Amino acid sequence: MTQNAIYRARRALTGTELASILASIAAARTIGDILDAAITTVFTALLGPLGESLAGFGPDRRLDPGEFAIPATQWTAICEAAMARADALGGRMAIALELVNQMPATYDEPAAPVPDSPPPDQRPYEHVLTVSREAADVICAASRHCADLAACFGEDSREYREAAGSWQHHLSQVFSMAFGPQTRVSRDGDLSLLVSTESGFTYGVIFHREPRRCTHNGCTAVIDDDGTARTARPGAPACPSGQHILSYPLDAPHPGSWSFHS
Ligand SMILES: [Zn+2]
Question: For residue 1, what pLDDT is reported?
Fold first, then answer.
């Protein structure tokens, strides 16, 4: 949204309007109700002074959220309240994307009223994480792999830092309750995990090996663990002698990193 955009309504919600919106969100009992509470109440407030209501919109006349704007601080407060409410149902991630798509645009107005305090923590008391024995082995193997990289390449090496940093990040995400309080973790390869969450969302934490390349200038060969060199297509540039300079030794632990796959 450019600064020159013409909004149909661009204003701060009053303290009363904001309190009413937050009360609707707090009273919602399903993910759909939470989203409805946030979106409906915000646009009802913004459309009212225009003499319109949401009832005037439908399949034939779509509401364009980008034609409306509220202060960024109020936008954040409403979304935080909705996501905290969704935490009670394991739906934080599900609702976050919808809010981004359906809420009005934002602008800066630091003096706009905001809630006195952040929304309460509404997550259940426990995250029940069920880890299959094979997955427990993967977790141990992944930690060991990082230690092996440190021993081989050094703790300050890019190889160790990329692997250990990505592993720590993704492992801690598995413990997060953003997808609900019940999670099952299973094995998806020697160093990879499959995570099934209560929300129905399943994702992988997958280790990707860094290909072992030849570092000789102009050579495009990739060298397998058994020393076999290959190029992406026949005839691609490669050391004519076959005397490649390996980016890491054949017997070294594989550099690489973990990434998130949905
Ligand atoms: Zn080469």
Answer: 47
Token code pair at residue 6: 């013409």
Q: Is the pTM of this model over 0.90?
A: no
Give 207 Cα–ligand 1 centroid separation in angstroms: 26
- Return the C-alpha torsion angle 130, 134, 136, 140, nearest 10: -160
Judgement on whether residues 196 and 219 belong to the same structural domain of the protein:
no
Distance CA 60, CA 38 (A): 23
CA–centroid distance, residue 217 to ligand 1 (Å): 8
Give the pLDDT score at 5: 66
Enclosing domain of residue 228: 211-246
Output the CA 30–ligand 1 centroid distance in Å.
59
Distance 166 CA to ligand 1 centre (A): 29
First to last CA, the chain: 30
The 10s digit of each residue's pLDDT in 20-68 is: 999 999 999 999 999 999 999 999 999 999 999 998 898 888 999 999 9
- Residues with beta carbon < 5 A to ion ligand 1? 214, 216, 219, 221, 239, 244
The whole-number pLDDT of residue 4 equals: 53
The domain boundary, picked from 107, 140, 171, lies at 107
